[in-house]
Every structure is written in C-alpha cells, then in structure tokens.
Design brief:
alpha+beta; two-stranded antiparallel sheet; 4 helices; elongated
Length: 137
C-alpha cells in the first residue's frame, strides 16, 4: 500500500514536470484564490479603518523554486504597516511612554493554514485530472 502511494506521488511529480506551463497557470490560479481568502479573513477580523491594508494583498508574478518544491508562488501584503497589524505592536505616546500592547491578527498565517486542505484537494482533483487528460490525447 505504501509503495503504491509513493509510486503514485512520483508519477504525479513526473507529470507536473512534463507540463510546466499548465502547472504555472494552476499555481497562479491558486494564488488568486488564496489572496481572495486572505482579503475576506481580513475584512472579518479587522473591524476598523486600516488605511490601504485590504487593498495591499498581492500575488507574486514569479513562480520560483524554494526548498524541495519546484513550484512556489508568493501571496503577501505590500502595505507598509502590514507587520503592525499582523504581529502586533507597542502603543506609544509622542513622548515615548508605553500605553499598552496591541495584539496582532496573524491574518496571513491563519488564512494560509485554512487554505492548505483546499489547495491539496485542488491538486488531487483539478491538476491531476488536467494532466491525465493531456496524457490521454
């Protein structure tokens, strides 16, 4: 059973490498889905005015190799104050007195974890079906 799963995973990797153009297109679509989920989570979580935080979510243009994965795409927020909302910050007066600590929302981290099962399901259903259909032609 384990040997069959390993063989199946190797077959999927070989098929992905045989169709790089389609795989890149699939990764960009998945990046757009993740960006949409991050924006929705940010709207639900942050219930106050945040400047251009919601419009700052972007999908990277380049698909790159990182670690052991051949195809990675970056989804991030380009707003200059993202780190303050994500990780929290000290609240200071202009004189430098600390008034308290604002906790972070960790929107990008939580959205990424919530998206992972959907991404794996999309790989199993959409990408593999497309590649198998192309191999059958």
């Amino acid at each position: 059973m384990a040997d069959d799963l390993i063989k199946f995973a190797d077959d999927i990797n070989d098929a992905i490498k045989a169709f790089p153009k389609e795989t890149k297109k699939f990764m960009k679509e998945e990046g757009r889905k993740l960006r949409k989920q991050m924006r929705a989570r940010a709207r639900r979580t942050v219930n106050r005015k945040t400047g251009n935080y919601l419009s700052g979510f972007q999908v990277g243009r380049k698909i790159y190799k990182w670690g052991d994965a051949d195809y990675n795409i970056r989804v991030y927020n380009s707003s200059p104050h993202t780190h303050l909302l994500e990780y929290g910050h000290r609240m200071l007066t202009h004189a430098g007195e600390m008034l308290g600590y604002v906790t972070g929302y960790h929107i990008i981290e939580h959205a990424g974890k919530a998206f992972e099962p959907e991404y794996l399901d999309d790989i199993n259903n959409n990408l593999v079906d497309f590649i198998l259909e192309e191999l059958g032609k």
